[in-house]
Amino acid sequence: MTDGDTNLPTIERKLGLQIWGIENMKMVPVPEKAYGTFFEGDCYIILHTKRTSRGTAVDLHYWIGKDSSQDEQGAAAMYVTQLDNALRGNPVQHREVQGHESETFQSYFRNGIIYKKGGVASGFKHVETNMYNIKRLLHVKGKKHVSATEVALSWDSFNKGDVFLLDLGKVLIQWNGPSCSIAEKSRGLALARSIRDSERGGRAQIGIIDNEKDSPDLMQIMKMVLGEKRGELRDAIPDAKADELQKANVRLYHVYEKDNDLVVQEIATRPLTQDLLQHEDCYILDQGGFKIYVWRGKASSPEEKKAAFTRAVGFIQAKGYPSSTNVEVINDGAESAMFKQLFQRWTEKDETQGLGKVYTTGKIAKVEQVKFDTTQLHARPELAAEQRMVDDASGEIEVWRIEDLQMQPVNPKTYGQFYGGDCYLVLYTYLRSGRPHYIIYMWQGRHASVDEITACALNAIELDKKYGDEAVQVRVTMGKEPTHFLAIFKGKLIIYEGGTSRAQKSTPEPAIRLFQVRGTDEMNTKATEVPARASSLNSNDVFLLTTSQVCYLWCGKGCSGDEREMAKMVADIVSKRDKHTILEGQEPAEFWEALGGKAPYASEKRFQEQVTHYQPRLFECSNQTGRFIMTEVVGFCQEDLDEDDVMLLDTWEEIFLWVGKASNTYERNEAIASAKEYLKTHPAGRDLATPIILVKQGSEPLNFTGWFNAWDPYKWSDGKSYEEMKNSLGDVSAISEIKVDLNNINLNKRTLSTTNSTGSSTASASPEYKSHFSHSDSNSYSNGSNGNSSPSLVPNGEGIYSREVLMNKTVDELPEGVDPTKKEYYLSDADFHDIFGKSKDEFYQMPKWKQQNEKKQCGLF
User: Fold this and answer.
1) Cα–Cα distance between 54 and 57 in angstroms, integer?
2) Strands (E), 384-463
3) What is the rounded (10 degree) CA torsion for 847, 853, 854, 858?
4) What are the start and end residues of every segment in region (Disordered) (predicted)?
5) Which of 28, 375, 519, 699 could form a disulfide linkage to 124, CB 3.0–4.6 angstroms apart?
6) Lowest-confidence range among 63-67, 128-132, 640-644?
7) What does the alpha-carbon distance between residue 141 and residue 167 come to, in Å, rounded to a whole number?
8) 203-240 per-residue burial string, b: 16 or more CB within 10 A, e: under 16
């Protein structure tokens, strides 16, 4: 195959998932029923297309099984390159290695991934939905991203912390380790049900062992298959995951060839900026060895683009990283959300600032404030999420100041006035569906003491308990007030730089103060105190200058009439003196004198600013091991919020922490610390003052639920728990039948053992071999392990055939009943040994890809 080959199958332009396996170096479609099952001896190509706000996003993966051949790996990589060209460079390309798949890849298979031993060409052609001739043990790992690996049928494969599935065809036994979480048990059960429904046509029974003493019948079956347990099971081995500090260690390299050598030149470290990427070049971004990104510039040469994967693999080898390291190849202009978030700032062409953005002073863009209909918030929760609004801000407010580490009520006449030397608690109560909901804002002044900030958080917890632990808690840092916080004060939010609102003030208030007023209506207006000097002015805004004699309303040339009206309302609050409105350029001498004299200030017109369109991201967070670990849930939905989890939702402007009712006390108590750690270690160098919002399960506000598609408010009351799902499995009536079958198997094994001891050449097929190649009808079940010459082991009960009948024959030329994918199975033991130079037992112990290669050479493939 050359680069110019067009051996690609027909690719449907459709949303969703399409999978092909590599067979005879060609792409063969995998039936949808087999999606999520991968043979360890094969390579696969996965194409995923989804709709986005900017059109469609395409991801192209090639998956490498641990026992796949170099030829198959090369063919898969070649096809990915051809597919990328056919799709005009739009896909983001991924290299996936078995057991180390990216979170994006794992998100496609919500019920989990199953690894099967061997590599079976027939597996691409059809799926046996009534296949009962199976005996295998699956090791299930993961809470959010589940994978099941076939392991040895032995108690030695077990540990105390994971889920194991003993698959006996008609019965699936789920054994839950004593250290398993509810989420792990639930995911294991979901996988067992998926196997039952997709592979057994819904006819298999599922039994669950949570406590061995409570499940004697199921344990008896397990012991008949696995033998008696000897000694203690080992503890679970924690997954080797990269912590956030490792992921934050991003480095950008310019990679190119010079005199046939690969040159790797480091050009930048965190924080990275978008302008480092030049369209004429290709770059490698190393995320702490956790993942390697290859960025291909639009104007880079075709040779450089084709060599992307090769260079990435060479880079991994040069760095001494594991060969399983994820690789993502990205085209200029088609960057993934994960890639963009590694940069401090990423702008898209023709993207402008969203609604209600508040800016600091300086030469930055100004965007017209756009009013929206607050009555739509409940009908359109996605609007609530975009606008960061839980309601129309018409609820009730109570405000307390932290004084002597206790809550001191604030005079309602001064609601909305916050001093930088204080901390405040704001309780907002609103009705939703006739039921009260609560938000507790913890406002932290820039000059407040550490003790006051700590006391503010502790008092918030106590206030939350008073309202049934249902309140949403929001950490607000001075100067980073969220949209809804502005709205509840109806245009009267005033932030004083320092000082305190306490009755006994330690320092007198300054005689001259300057306030910058931003906002066009009661929903988005805030006045912030700035240094009282001329350099603080900005031609695009309105400023209030208060002195002991007068209050000046200074209107910059770029301000609007709505801004001037809102400034007049604020002026009545900050000063009782006479109000003098002055226009920029017409200031009296007294004005400049109060500011200490004239000085240059920002006077250029602001233009609309291009800003980043960041996609929301959901993470499971944990720091129990002493390392802060986050697992991303790609393509998230409400189902990903498990009761025993603490989840972090990053919408860029806000951080939500969702706390499940069954989450452990440690992670619950450390939730805010986890969010701060997330911001601190973010590769893009995030603003540590970003608002952090604590949300409790069952009390989610609209600005949280709006980020999820089809949010079900009754899920927590109507959704089935793990115990309810377990009880719904019904009667395991097949257990007694399985016991009888297993007793017969044990008898057959003893007979076989006696026969073999006399020197017979009878060989027993391995469980893996039988699970791939044995056929059975929908009403049969066999775990027999007879010799290969026995008719009962030959598919469809047929006998042995001569080599002349089987070798180099097409499907039409084979005897009736012979499975064309298993021709060698019908050979006599003597012919088999003569052709392959080994016994059947030895042959079937080989990796499946080696079996296939030998069958090809001998005309039996």
Assistant:
1) 8
2) 396-403, 406-409, 417-419, 423-432, 435-444
3) 160
4) 751-798
5) 28
6) 128-132
7) 16
8) bbbbbbbbeeeebeebbebbebbbeeeeeeeeebeeee
Rounded-to-integer distance, Cα 561 and Cα 544, Å? 15
In whole angstroms, give the CA distance from residue 568 to residue 562: 10
Please determine whether the domains at 508-604 and 617-706 fall in the same fold group of CATH. yes
| Pick among 1.20.272.10, 1.10.950.10, 3.60.20.10, 3.20.20.100: CATH of 803-858 | 1.10.950.10
Helix 734-757 and helix 216-226, axial crossing angle in degrees, nearest 10 = 20
What letter does residue 606 receive in the DSSP assignment? P
DSSP strand pairing (113-116 vs 147-151): parallel
What is the Cα–Cα distance from 409 to 359, expressed in whole angstroms?
Answer: 31
Which overall architecture, per CATH, does domain 16-122 show? 3-Layer(aba) Sandwich (3.40)
Q: Which fold has domain 252-343?
A: Severin (3.40.20)
Distance CA 197, CA 192 (A): 9
User: Could you tell me which residue, 418 or 13, shows the higher pLDDT?
Assistant: 418
> Which residue ranges make up each domain of the chain?
16-122, 136-226, 252-343, 508-604, 617-706, 803-858
- What's the number of CA atoms in the CB half-sphere (13 Å) around residue 754? 5
Give the residue among 115, 841, 223, 128 at the shortest CA–CA distance from 833: 841
What string of DSSP letters covers 154-210?
SGGG-BTTSEEEEE-SSEEEEEEPTT--HHHHHHHHHHHHHHHHHHSTT--EEEEES
- By the 10 Å C-beta count (0-12 exposed, 13-18 middle, 19+ buried), 405 is classed as middle
Encode pLDDT of 428-466 as tens digits: 999 887 889 999 999 999 899 999 999 999 999 999 999
Q: Which residue has the tokens 């075709």?
A: 302
Question: Judging by beta carbons within 10 Å of its beta carbon (0-12, 13-18, 19+), is residue 736 exposed, middle or buried?
Answer: exposed
**804: phi > 0 → left, psi -120 to 50 → alpha, else beta; which?**
alpha
Cα gap 89→552, rounded to integer Å: 59
> How does strand 92-97 pair with strand 113-116?
unpaired
| Contact indicator for 386, 403 with CB cutoff of 8 Å | no
Distance CA 423, CA 512 (A): 24
Retrieve residue 471's tokens. 């309140």
pLDDT tens, 125-137? Answer: 444 444 567 888 9
Q: State the Cα–Cα distance between residues 580 and 559, nearest whole angstrom.
A: 17
Fold of 617-706: Severin (3.40.20)
Which CATH architecture does the domain made up of 136-226 adopt?
3-Layer(aba) Sandwich (3.40)
Find the length of the chain. Answer: 861
Q: What is the SS3 assignment for 58-116?
A: EEEEEEECCCCCHHHHHHHHHHHHHHHHHCCCCCEEEEEECCCCCHHHHCCCCCCEEEE
User: Which position has the higher pLDDT, 222 or 118?
Assistant: 222
Maximum Cα interatomic distance, the chain, rounded to a whole number of Å: 117
53 pLDDT band, cuts 50/70/90, is: low
Say how many C-beta atoms besides its own lie within 10 A of residue 525's C-beta.
27
CATH dotted code for 508-604: 3.40.20.10
> CA-CA distances (angstroms) from residue 602 to 497, 555, 593?
21, 14, 19
Q: Tell me if residue 620 falls in helix, strand or coil.
A: strand
Pairwise CA distance, residues 244 & 529, whole Å: 37
Nearest-CA neighbor of 221 among 300, 135, 314?
135
pTM beyond 0.90: the answer is no
> b/e for 569-597, b at 16 or more Cβ within 10 A?
ebbebbbeeeeeeeebeebeeebeebbee
Q: And the tokens for 342?
A: 């590694």
Assess whether pLDDT exceeds 90 at residue 151. no
Beta pairing partners, 28: 21
